[in-house]
Design a protein that fits this description.
Blueprint (H helix, E strand, L loop, with lengths): L2 E12 L3 E10 L2 E6 L7 E6 L4 E4 L1 E7 L8 H11 L2 E8 L5 H15 L3 E7 L3 H14 L3 E5 L17 H14 L3 E5 L3 H13 L5 H7 L2 H18 L2 E4 L5 H11 L5 E5 L2 H4 L19 H13 L4 E2 L28 H10 L6 H16 L15 E11 L18 E11 L2 E5 L2 E2 L24
Parallel strand pairs: 1-4, 1-5, 6-7, 7-8, 8-9, 9-10, 10-11, 11-12, 12-13
Antiparallel strand pairs: 1-2, 2-3, 5-14, 14-15, 15-16, 16-17
Helix pairs in contact: 3-4, 5-6, 7-8
Length: 461
């Protein structure tokens, strides 16, 4: 039996079956066989993975486009993803307009440029979005929708989003529950409290990351998390809580899951590595903010015991110039996809906090399961031939200009991590090898998801 590609002599990191030596064979872009080490089976191409660990292709489910250089970011940021070992991303598409009117254009920009497979979460902020929710799932294969609890009044206007209220959230979750195969991603933040705390902090002369945290203290995340969980349980909806950052909020999730478990929780790498005393000024401004050292410890505990389901970047490709301002006017967020795996390997695996199998679950199988990414996040026969080859012992300094993002900095600039991806394979084709992107823009395919996902190319509907 002949194959297109064999990854030979590697150590396979399977999110289901654990870690073991073996070969993986790919034919027609899919995994065709799992073989014994040094199987000697013929293939058009063989990659010797001796000394390397073979993961399913990594998946980042929390990426933002449009904050740096729109359109061309689909080139730069997917190159950046490939550098980090990622083969699939899900990006937030944020608008108050009907997606029926704007999807085709955005899809075309991405499809022509993306180096990795891509999909979208749609934000929802208008009554029309509610009315068209089921149609979006059927026409565009989108089964996840973002709601910002903090966008009340004009708070979301900088993103072009209408302000809503708890009544809208109730109607949204009710609609999602009725449709069935829908996940509502809820940014949990009590903006009324934040506004009061922010005014007090500014009046008191606050200017540091610690003051930024004090304007959005842990209670503002925890209280809104409880409210989101209560709404979801009452209506029978499935929700996803992104970028959880505090022990207080995570403990509420733990308690609630004893009675209602249709909730998935994400954290981000920066909540594993930075706290509110980080000496990097407004470069570290994010929402949620960096938290206490105890909150950092709680995030690691949640990853280890399963209270936190997955890790994603909250990647924002801004320039340094937008960050180097006073804390209250600096932009929020920073690039993150390419350094997720090194963070988890260096500060997780190598320090005894996480197993390799657990890291694979956090970055492959759970993201695929949560958002219905068929053929992704798995090494089973018939899955997409997406693989990330990792050198656990490679030590490398983070240099932003080597990673390809539109951003010209990194939160980890100058840090040295042990454990890096050395090859990224998408559907049987190498798209990154030893830090060199070998794939081409436009090779990435659109990820239509959910039971109602269209099977034909989206633009031919």
């Amino acid at each position: 039996m002949s194959f297109d590609l064999i990854i030979a002599n590697g150590t396979i990191v399977d999110p289901v079956n654990g870690v073991a030596p073996g070969d993986i064979a790919i034919r027609d872009g899919r995994i065709a066989a799992r073989l014994a080490p040094d199987s000697g089976v013929g293939a058009r191409e063989t990659i010797d993975a001796t000394g390397l660990h073979v993961f399913p292709g990594l998946i980042d489910t929390h990426v933002h486009f449009g904050f740096g250089e729109p359109i061309t970011e689909y080139t730069t940021e997917t190159i950046y993803a490939a550098q980090g070992g990622f083969t699939s991303i899900l990006a937030y598409f944020l608008s108050s307009e009907s997606y029926d009117d704007i999807f085709d254009t955005e899809y075309a920009h991405a499809a022509a440029r993306s180096h990795v497979d891509f999909g979208f979460h749609f934000s929802v902020a208008s009554e029309r979005h509610l009315d068209e929710l089921g149609g979006y799932a059927a026409r565009f294969g989108v089964n996840s929708f973002k709601y910002f609890m903090n966008f009340k009044g004009e708070e979301g206007r900088y993103l072009g989003l209408d302000g809503t209220d708890d009544g809208y959230l109730y109607a949204l979750l009710e609609r999602a529950a009725a449709l069935g195969d829908i996940t509502i991603v809820i940014h949990t933040e009590n903006i009324e409290l934040v506004n009061r705390f922010r005014r007090a902090s500014i009046a008191g002369g606050g200017s540091t990351l610690r003051d930024w945290n004090l304007s959005k203290p842990a209670f503002t995340e925890a209280e809104s998390t409880v409210r989101a969980l209560a709404f979801a349980e009452h209506l029978g909806a499935r929700i996803y809580i992104p970028h959880i950052s505090t022990r207080l909020a995570l403990d509420e999730v733990r308690r609630w899951r004893d009675r209602y478990d249709r909730v998935v929780v994400e954290t981000c790498p920066h909540y594993l590595t930075h706290d509110l005393d980080a000496d990097i000024g407004s470069i570290g401004k994010a929402n949620p903010p960096f938290r206490s050292a105890d909150d950092v410890a709680a995030m690691w505990e949640g990853l280890a015991d399963g209270a936190i389901d997955l890790v994603a970047s909250d990647h924002v490709p801004r320039k340094r110039a937008t960050k180097e301002k006073p804390i209250w006017s600096a932009s929020q967020g920073f690039p993150g996809t390419a350094t997720i795996l090194p963070v988890l390997l260096d500060t997780g695996y190598h320090r005894g906090r996480l197993s390799l199998q657990r890291i694979a679950q956090l970055l492959t199988s759970k993201p695929a399961e949560t958002f219905g990414l068929r053929g992704k996040g798995s090494l089973s026969i018939g899955s997409d031939g997406d693989l990330t080859l990792v050198d656990l012992n490679r030590v490398r300094e983070v240099k932003p200009d080597e990673l390809g993002s539109f951003s010209d900095y990194s939160l980890y600039e100058g840090w040295t991590f042990k454990g890096w991806p050395v090859r990224t394979i998408l559907r049987g084709e190498t798209i990154m090898a030893d830090g060199v992107v070998t794939g081409r823009g436009g090779y990435g395919r659109y990820l239509a998801r959910g039971a109602a996902a269209p099977t034909a190319p989206v633009l031919q509907r």
